[in-house]
Amino acid sequence: KILGAIHCPEDEMVTLATYQLLGDAEYWWGNTSLLMEAAYEEYTWENFKRKFLAKYFPETARERYGEEFLKLRQGGMNLEAYAKKFESLSRFFRFFRDGIDEVYMCRRFQDGLRYELQDAVVPLGIRQFQVLVEKCQEIEDMRNKKVNR
Question: Which Pfam families does this one have (predicted)?
């Protein structure tokens, strides 16, 4: 995250990222970099990221998070809890999938909503995620007030 914030050039990302590693991760990188060197493999950001994720966030975990994200439904959760869970799972999903844009995220969020919220918000055609969440929250709040009257 910090590498993007400081606009770190890609050819320096591996050096800066590996400098931050401690303990087992530092030991792992020492061995991995030796193996890469022996195999004439370049120290690119993509290679580092691929190897780091394979070690510390294996494919099985990525698949599990991806499936959980794709199957997520609001069910008995209030809108705030659903949105929080959706955003948490979507971080992992977007990190491993290319081409995930805001329109897709809006569609996925809407697909998981309870029908009464879906029915009210889908026709609005909202394509900005935060705007969609706020509108859903307004609708849920209005319906809760109506029930409590």
Answer: Retrotrans_gag (PF03732)
> Could you give the CA distance from residue 19 to residue 12 in angstroms, rounded to a whole number?
11
34-40 long-range contacts (CB < 8 A, ≥24 apart) are none
Listed in sequence order, the DSSP H helices in the chain are 2-5, 10-19, 23-38, 45-56, 59-71, 79-96, 102-112, 115-121, 129-147
What span, in angstroms and rounded, lies between the C-alpha atoms of 126 and 33? 47
Whether the predicted model's global pTM rises above the 0.85 cut:
no
**Number of Cβ atoms within 10 Å of the Cβ of 10:** 10
* CA 30 vs CA 15, 50, 121, 141: distances in Å: 12, 16, 52, 54
Q: Tokens for 145, please give them.
A: 């007030």
Q: Which among 15, 19, 7, 24 has a CA at the least distance from the CA of 44? A: 15
